[in-house]
Write a structure and sequence with these properties.
26% strand, alpha+beta, single chain
Length: 205
């Protein structure tokens, strides 16, 4: 009697699947090999951004300093111009006071001139205002002055000299038609406790 296996044909051995547990593991899979390349070191941070910040800070400080200096210089120039303008204005007013006198207001006109004077110029009028007013009134003198041009000539501490060109229209009892008289004067103005006063008036040829 034949074997049952012979009837069914030759026996086929099943395919064998390798056991993964026994499969050799590569060194690169585990990372445990001593031959693996070392990790590259991190690159150093660049230094140029710090330099840019330093240079920018220096430039900013320089710009701010220059701006402050310009502001201070401009203020000084403005103050100097204002002071010079005040001296010139005081000189103009002195000349107007000197060349504008009327017989009917001679007392007030002369007193206004004295109030704006100091030093030698004031001394020329003090004590003499009475006779001067009398002559003006007796002669019927009227002078109407105007300033044609004025400007600073020089400055010296608290004083400044200005050149003033003026014209006065002069009339009197004998000459009722006003005649022009042109003058050039050097007027020295001094700052006395905040008041700008005429200390000297000179006729310039």
């Amino acid at each position: 009697m034949a074997n049952e296996h012979d009837k069914d044909g030759p026996t086929v051995e099943p395919d064998t699947v390798p056991d993964e547990s026994t499969t050799p593991t590569s060194a690169t899979d585990t990372g445990g090999s001593d031959t693996a390349p070392a990790a590259s070191a991190a690159p150093a941070a660049p230094t140029w951004p710090k330099r840019v910040v330093v240079v920018a800070s220096i430039l900013l400080i320089a710009v701010v300093a220059a701006g402050v200096w310009l502001i201070i210089d401009q203020r000084s120039a403005d103050e100097r111009d204002e002071r010079r303008a005040a001296f010139v204005q005081a000189a103009r007013q002195t000349v107007l006071n000197l060349t504008t006198i009327r017989a009917d207001s001679a007392d007030a006109d002369v007193q206004r001139l004295i109030d704006g004077a100091t030093g030698d110029f004031k001394a020329e009028f003090e004590g003499r205002e009475g006779p001067f007013v009398e002559v003006v009134q007796q002669a019927g003198v009227t002078t109407m002055g105007e300033v044609l041009e004025a400007g600073i000539q020089n400055e010296d501490g608290t004083c400044a000299s200005s050149l003033v060109a003026s014209r006065a229209m002069v009339s009197n009892a004998d000459q009722t038609e006003p005649e022009p008289r042109d003058f050039r004067l050097r007027v020295t103005i001094c700052d006395e406790n905040g008041r700008l006063l005429a200390s000297k008036v000179e006729f310039v040829p």
